[in-house]
TrEMBL record:
Belongs to the anti-sigma-factor antagonist family. The chain crosses the membrane at residues 53-74. This is Anti-sigma factor antagonist. Residues 11-120 form the STAS domain. Keywords: Membrane, Transmembrane, Transmembrane helix. It holds the Pfam family STAS. It comes from Actinacidiphila acidipaludis. InterPro entries: Anti-sigma_ant, STAS_dom, STAS_dom_sf. It comes from the Bacteria.
Amino acid sequence: MRANIVRHESMMVNYAVVNGWTVVEIDGDVDAHTAPMVREGVIKLLGQGHRHFVLDFGFVTFMDSMGLGVVVAITKRLRENHGSLRIASVSGRIRRIFELSGMGDSFEFYRSAEEATRTAPPVGALAHWPHPAH
């Protein structure tokens, strides 16, 4: 069951819990105006005990550097709380923002939320963030 955590004229954010993951589905633009709402929604869920997140960008039509900044801020907060993060359904245009910023290798990307939630959350997944453990 999906629940709404942000409703705004240019975006909506819903979440559902799947296999231990809180899948946050973002629908709309993630920019200077809306990115703080995404951050606050995730922080609210974190306060409710959610620790392992999948950010589903499948319905994101536009993201700017503020959107990337929010993903970084969320990741830092999750790391502090021993959580984990996966990013799903990223278009080529949005993936390019991660690549151009030098953050392309710092996150786990999945083709879909279904793929991202197939395995249960790992312990200590963000311990080495922003450098992946290889």
